Amino acid sequence: MRLEDGDVALRSLVEADAAPLAAAARDPLVPYYTSVPENYTEARALEFILRGGNQFAIVDAATDELLGVIGFHLDDHARGHFGYWVGKEARGRGVATRALRLLTRWAAAEHGLARLQLIVEPENLASVRVAEKAGFRREARLRSYIELRGARRDVYLYALLAEDL
After folding, report:
1. Which residue blocks in 4-124 are alpha helix, DSSP H?
2. Cα–Cα distance measured from residue 128 to residue 125, given in angstroms and rounded to the nearest whole number
3. The model scores a pTM over 0.85
4. 3-state class (DSSP) for residue 119
5. Which residue intervals of 83-154 are DSSP H helices?
6. How far is residue 122's CA from residue 162's CA, in Å, rounded to a whole number?
7. CB neighbours of 95 closer than 8 A, spacing ≥ 6?
8. Main-chain dihedrals φ then ψ at residue 54, nearest 5 degrees
9. Could you report the per-residue pLDDT of 92-134, keeping only the tens digit for each?
10. Secondary structure (3-state) at 149
11. 37's torsion region: left (phi>0), alpha (psi -120 to 50) or beta?
């Protein structure tokens, strides 16, 4: 699979992505806001890639440079749960918003999703902006919803209905 908008592309992760993926994930903000472990190694990145699933590389459409990762998982109620992160050098350029728009439209059509959702920590203002720019609406604050690095954290629940795409 390859989706692109002219500047950003989504494609399957490949083994050659392990080294750049591990390097980008070692940015302290990635493990702080995501479930990516601290001190992410190339071996762990390779395990992640080989596991497969609905995880995709976010790349520069012209150069294929790895910018981040985006993915989703499905549940049995025509819902998709989305997550994303981009490396330090890609932030502030609209990369995550563009990737999220590409993937949500494709996933809704391909998998017949009625509802698309994601969670964002309230202090992660960049991710809040990404979700909102991609058309997601904040529906709730879920208290003590996730545990990351041994601490319980609140999240905002954002949703986008397929009919709003």
Report:
1. 18-25, 29-33, 42-51, 95-111
2. 5
3. yes
4. strand
5. 95-111, 125-133
6. 24
7. 8, 58, 67, 68, 86
8. -95, 50
9. 999 999 999 999 999 999 999 999 999 999 999 999 999 999 9
10. coil
11. beta
- Residue spans of the domains in the chain: they are 2-164
Please list the helix, strand and coil fractions of the chain in percent, rounded to the nearest 5, in that order.
35, 35, 30
The SS3 of residue 124 is coil
Handedness of CA 120, 122, 128, 131 (dihedral sign): positive
Instruction: With H, G, I as helix, E, B as strand and everything else as coil, classify residue 78.
Output: coil
The whole-angstrom separation of Cα 2 and Cα 5 is 10
What token pair was written down for 66? 């790895």
Q: Which helix (H) or strand (E) holds 147?
A: strand 137-148
Residue type at 144?
S
Q: Is 28 helix (H, G, I), strand (E, B) or coil?
A: coil
Domain 2-164 belongs to what topology?
A: Aminopeptidase (3.40.630)
